[in-house]
Write a structure and sequence with these properties.
4-stranded antiparallel beta sheet, two-stranded parallel sheet
Amino acid sequence: MQEVPSTVDAPVPLALLMERLHGWARELGFSQIAVADVDLSSAEPGLQAWLDAGLHGRMHYMAAHGMKRARPAELVPGTLRVITARMDYLPLATAPGWQAVEWAGLATPGQAQVSIYARGRDYHKVLRQRLQKLAERLQAEVGPRGYRVFTDSAPVLEVELATRSGLGWRGKHTLALHREAGSMFFLGELFIDLPLPLTEPVTAHCGECRACLDVCPTAAITAPYRVDARRCISYLTIEHDGPIPEALRPLMGNRIYGCDDCQLACPWNKFAQPAVLADFDVRPGMAGMSIAALLGWDEAEFLRRTEGSAIRRIGFARWQR
């Protein structure tokens, strides 16, 4: 855990501190924050069953960390609470009807489709920096505390923490859903040794809807709340380090990095919100480009075009695959 010096003179009531935290978070570009407990033991059986079934594919790190994902206080000793954070990522200029634009792109065979979240700056960097600033603001108020920030970068059950703290509910596609923001947002966490008041979970609102299951091009959502990563296009184009199975290649269409189909089909994403930050605006070449043009990049061009982008993480060889 990290600590920073404090200039605080008197303790701040935790309820008042939460009010200030919400204000600081908004100033930093977060759409919402909440607070979760560290007891995720009830999530362990489901996680273990998913791993035992091999549904994590070649993401060996998932199995390597095992149940530590469901035990925040083991991952970061001393943790008492997890501050969960939501940051919307639709580009600032996103107009109503954006889903139709995405569907049209998917229906254009020669056009390369990059997942919306990856068209701007690397979200890992954006969220981590801003969570760090949030932690520093907090410590300036209450004194040195042990803490650590995460965003999709460590063995953390992000959606579980988000749903338990009230950032939304788990959709049948396994992503977090919010009534006023759909699922087009990033999640981040601040583990801290401060007993902040917990926030309440919200009710699920998927009902009988199965739009995400029905639309998945590879039938990767094998049942409500269950994804077989080995069939998921996002996994195959980003996490998978080997050749893509031949049977799945025709189903991938023009999706070259990630896949948004289950989110595009979700009715709740009509409420998706544009980002507060310009970091997630579309970079040149990340939307509307032809597949031929992108595959024509040499390694130097790939590195130049993807500097500061999450796409660079997969490397040139996997990009060419």
